[in-house]
Exodeoxyribonuclease 7 large subunit
Amino acid sequence: MISVSALNRLARDVLESALPLMWVGGEISNLTRASSGHVYFTLKDANAQVRCTMWRNRAQLLAFRPENGMRVEARALVSLYEARGDYQLNVETLRPAGIGNLFEAFSRLKEKLAAEGLFDAALRRPLPRFPRGIALVTSPAAAALRDVLATLGRRSPHLRVILYPAPVQGPDAPQGLIQALMQAGQRAQADQTDLVLLVRGGGSIEDLWAFNDEALARAIRHCPLPVISGVGHETDFTIADFVADLRAATPTGAAELASAGFHAAQGDLVMLGQSLRRTIVRRLENLAQRIDRCALRLIHPCQQLKLSAAKLDTLSQRLKRGMRDTLRRDRQQHDHIALRLRNQRPRLTPLQQRLTALDARLKQSMRTQLHAQRQHVIALGTHLGHLDPTAVLARGYSITRDQDGNIIRSIQQVAAGDALSIELTDGFLDGVVRTRPG
């Protein structure tokens, strides 16, 4: 069993993971703008409807004001509001219905140029940190021009700006922008410009469509100067943004990127100035301390001689005391060693007595051992005599052997006619078996 909260959370996770971010078309109804800035509405068609939520950070970026009855296309993620269990769309952005074809054309061109490698990061040129001058491509009547000039005047007023006027909207805009870019590249050496700013203020996708032109994209890539694009608002993306060497979210952002080196250098100069002042102050303080120490060491020669004489007298007294103390310690050490030597002199009388006693014990022990060994040898001789077979023969016994030398212990070992050898105490006799008792 699971709780309702867990069930709704599981359903939300399944919806969000199973369905991708997508475009959904319909008509706005029941639109409500909360005081927090969030926008709530229903997106419907002839047969169905779905609740939608657009959070404040997304709603404030819209280029138009949505109203009830307006047909729109919403880029949204399917989700579930857990507290009520309501199925809804979390809307990322809105666009008026009917401009989907422009987005499709934009996507196709983007894929084509990407496949050709026009968007490769390896082709992007580094921006000069301290440009000599900036070539500004925009309309003289555009608000973007004022924003760029105001930003550059605030951050790097010394920087020279050359305006290359061009229309930024309408059917003639792409060709005008291309010509302005070509002129900026051709006059770069004469005008001493190192960077191009291609800027325009925000607007609808139709207003910005001139910057999605294929020929303009190729002109940007072949421009001899690096190009910063600052077209529209932060959420607006054009083909010019992808092919430019660097994209800025706004025209003001483009001016900030162009002057970033000078702006950072101002901060670096302030920090270096502060560091230099601290270094100079520390150096002066150290030198002042050295002067003070040197001043303390400056003494009149007469006074120096008196101090040296006093120091010499002190050292002489210390030397005399040291010699006396050394001689006294050496004498005490000599007496101590002599006393230890006398105490370590060997006493011979007890040692001689002990040696005599040990000699007597050794002789007695040897006599005792010799007597015991002699008795043991006598006993072994007696025992051997008892075991001597010749002694048995001397008592009248004999040993009878067959012709192979085997001792005859039974009559079963011989047969009639067998030769015998009989050993007596004083010699041998030969015999023959005549008969063998049955």
